[in-house]
Design a protein that fits this description.
Helix content is 71%, strand content 0%. It has 85 residues and is mainly alpha-helical. It is elongated and about 55 Å long.
């Protein structure tokens, strides 16, 4: 079992994917995903659970390949790291 800490490439990729997932969650929020408009809507917890749902959907989109944003973010982070080294 490999117990070595993740290297800079692994950490950089994880950060890029997390940023892509955050972006996607915000875009899903703009679509109204998870919001209800019926007799049962409007509770305080509804918005919290809707945000959890959007974040889970966004993470799953990234896990399935995403929209390519993580690749661009990772490339920019590598370029910045090489410029400062």
């Amino acid at each position: 079992m490999d117990t070595a800490p993740p290297g800079p490439d692994t950490a950089r990729r994880a950060a890029a994917e997390a940023l892509e997932a955050s972006f996607l969650a915000e875009m899903l929020k703009a679509t109204g995903l998870g919001e209800q408009d019926n007799n049962f809507s409007g509770s305080t917890g509804e918005s919290q659970f809707a945000s959890f749902h959007r974040e889970a959907v966004a993470r799953e989109i990234v896990n399935k390949g995403g929209i390519g944003l993580a690749d661009m973010i990772e490339a920019a982070m590598k370029e910045t790291a090489h410029d400062s080294a």
